[in-house]
Design brief:
There is one protein chain. The chain is α/β, with parallel strands linked by helices. The chain has one domain: Rossmann fold. Helices cover about 35% and strands about 30% of the residues. It contains seven helices and seven strands, in the order ααββαββαβααβαβ. The longest helix has 17 residues, at about 140-155. It is globular, with a radius of gyration of 16 Å. The structure holds S-adenosylmethionine.
Length: about 200
């Protein structure tokens, strides 16, 4: 791991993910979480203040540096919580045990998104749900071309983040159905801000 990835990137992500447009979406989406909750790629724990009525939170994150931020955020929890150093592609937890999985702006950085979504499907209880928000492929050809051009440099400086992940296609390929989905650009450069958010269930 480079010095940039260890010392600079975690601080950069913590700062960037506090953008007001993202905070607004967090405040709208996360309160739908209920019961036993697993958060995937928790980052610096910016969703924590938005959980309102859950019985337990298990948060998974591969970066030790970001986990340290998340642990700080979960100091005075209103619910039992546990942080795990792990990746979405290999979730070290039992099958059929979570009512809600939360994943926000993480699928872009996961190396194998289909394996990650299959693992998520495995750990959700029958009738459970995934609350998601992701940026991804734009519907506009001109912007898609830019996403393709910028991707190689962007992914190197942004922790492996891919600008043009096909979010709907990936969820559907893994066997999810959308209970709700909203799409559209957020504030900021269009190549990085086409956003997908909603709730997915097992089809
Ligand atoms: C842009 S940040 C988003 C963080 C957080 N979810 C949020 O909403 O602020 C992307 C996160 O994905 C995590 N990540 C990258 N690869 C992952 C993987 N294979 N499994 C789980 N998380 C991963 C990164 O460490 C980082 O915390």
């Amino acid at each position: 791991m480079s010095l940039y990835q260890k010392y600079i990137l975690p601080k950069l992500l913590n700062w960037a993910m506090k953008a007001p447009a993202l905070s607004k979406l967090r405040s709208e989406l996360i309160p739908f979480a209920e019961g036993r909750v697993l958060e995937i790629g928790v980052g610096s724990g910016l969703n924590f203040p938005h959980y309102s009525d859950i019985s337990q939170l298990i948060a998974l994150e591969p970066s030790e540096e970001l986990l340290a931020f998340a642990e700080e955020m979960s100091r005075e929890p209103e619910f039992p919580s546990e942080m795990l150093k792990a990746s979405a592609e290999d979730i070290p937890l039992e099958s059929n045990t979570f009512d809600t999985v939360v994943m926000t702006w993480t699928l872009c950085s996961v190396a194998d998104p289909i394996s990650a979504l299959s693992e998520i499907k495995r750990v959700i209880k029958p009738g459970g749900k995934v609350i998601f928000a992701e940026h991804g492929q734009s519907p506009d050809q001109n912007i898609r071309n830019w996403q393709k051009r910028i991707n190689p440099v962007w992914s190197r400086v942004a922790g492996g983040c891919q600008l043009n992940r096909e979010i709907e296609f990936l969820y559907e390929s893994a066997g999810f159905k959308f209970k709700s989905i909203e799409k559209g650009y957020l504030e900021g450069p269009k190549f990085a801000t086409y956003n997908y958010r909603g709730i997915a269930t097992i089809g």
